[in-house]
Specification:
By secondary structure, the chain is mainly alpha-helical. Helix content is 45%, strand content 5%. It contains 9 helices and 2 strands, in the order H-H-E-H-E-H-H-H-H-H-H. Strands 1-2 form a two-stranded parallel ribbon. Helix 4 packs across helix 8 and helix 8 (133-139) packs across helix 9 (141-149).
Length: 165
């Protein structure tokens, strides 16, 4: 996705914030806002009752985060990774993910990591090498929605298994 954002922005930096203390994350966002730069905070839904509740939870401990800058992945980011593997690459990597990955959990993803990988992160990096944007958009509605909402793609795609009428 970084390359898609780079078409619209001069500089794109992706920062993992999950392991950051909220005070440090608040300071980082403050610095970004002070520069007049745009930002997005992307968070897993993690079984929250609704998107609004998750946005409120994310914003509750982070000073100055703007709710309109929060995007929520349904259900978890691992579903986006899994969706990006087309059938050919699932065979090549010796794994099988469901056709629709919207509800795929971290635990389900971890159970499908082939034993030949040292860690789930190694496997995720391998997925990124062969990631198919079209496959991901068709297999995960949350991913497709995110791309369209951010203006990174224009047209909707058919969900996996959907036919022409």
């Amino acid at each position: 996705m970084k390359s898609l954002f780079e078409k619209n922005y001069d500089r794109v930096v992706i920062r993992a914030y999950a392991s950051m203390k909220r005070v440090k994350f608040s300071a980082l966002l403050g610095a970004i806002r002070a520069m007049g730069a745009d930002y997005l905070v992307v968070a897993d839904n993690d079984h929250s009752p609704c998107i609004t509740a998750k946005k409120e939870w994310v914003g509750s401990g982070v000073a100055g985060v703007q709710p309109q800058r929060i995007r929520v992945v349904v259900e978890e980011i691992e579903g986006w990774y899994a969706a990006g593997l087309d059938l050919e690459n699932m065979v090549r990597l010796r794994t099988v993910f469901p056709v629709n990955t919207d509800g795929l959990t971290k635990e389900e993803f971890n159970d499908l990591v082939p034993e030949r990988f040292d860690s789930r992160i190694d496997f995720m990096m391998e997925i990124l090498k062969v990631f198919s944007l079209d496959s991901a958009r068709g297999r995960n509605a949350s991913f497709d929605y995110f791309l369209r909402k951010e203006g990174l793609v224009q047209s909707p795609v058919k969900a996996a298994g959907e036919r022409d009428s």
